[in-house]
Amino acid sequence: xxxAGGVANAVERAVLHGCESLQIFSKNANRWVAPPxxxxxxxxxxxxxxxxxITPTVSHASYLINLASTNPSLRAQSMDALADELDRAHRLAxxxxxxxxxxxxxxxxxxxxxxxxxxxxxxFARQRRxxxxxxxxxxxxxxxxxxxxxxxxxxVIERLDGSPRLGVCLDTCHLVASGYDIVSPTGYxxxxxxxxxxxxxxxLKVFHGNDSKRPCGARVDRHEHIGxxxxxxxxxRRLIHDPRFDGLPILIETEKSETLQRAGVIAAxxxxxxxxxxxxxxxxxxxx
Length: 288
Known about the structure:
Layout: H1 7-16, E1 22-24, H2 39-52, E2 57-60, H3 72-91, E3 96-99, E4 102-103, H4 109-126, E5 133-137, E6 145-146, H5 150-159, E7 166-171, H6 172-177, H7 185-198, E8 204-208, E9 211-212, E10 223-224, H8 234-241, E11 250-251, H9 258-263, H10 270-284
Parallel strand pairs: 1-2, 2-3, 3-5, 5-7, 7-8, 8-11
Antiparallel strand pairs: 4-6, 9-10
């Protein structure tokens, strides 16, 4: 949900849509620097979350951050930006910050994974004794992006000594785009069996629920409305009724109505209503 007009407004938008969990950007996702959070706005945000029972709530890190960069200046800037994201999430009492692991700028994928782990270790060291998590998002594998294989995620976690502050976010669009078949029943079962073996289901904290405009293995990240892309409805039905994922949020990142985005008003977005209602119908009916 948009934070236009203040972070607390995101909660009001979530309430209007009947949301049970929430994801926000705590600052502009396409800028390095942002004004500090307003103390009164933070208090209202936290109070409204308590009053509404919306949980968990997470933020999504800036798209500019690249912990895999070999450029010293960009690397330092990325670590500072991530530290700021965690500071903001801590003030807002969020579960954590969803983070794209990074993109190779030189060297091998393994080199990139080492750079990512080292950067996270440095950032965590600045903020000892905080519970706020980094939720590594599994990616679609577009370009030289890393994190599109489960072993990438497990490698970063291992190189951080299994830190309890590391969790994982799985995106349904990214899973299919990167080559994990969650559409067929057998592919669904084998995908999560592999994830459990390499990463562990206990690390999974958040789903991003998005359909995909592109087919399995395309390695292109293009979100589609729920049920209207290459996934269809059944993978979402399986996720919702899979007892292993009871209590885990499915956060949609589907296209919003442009006019409402520009206006920044607190109003129901017809596209959000459509996608959320689709998921609610799937929850109400386990299947044929």
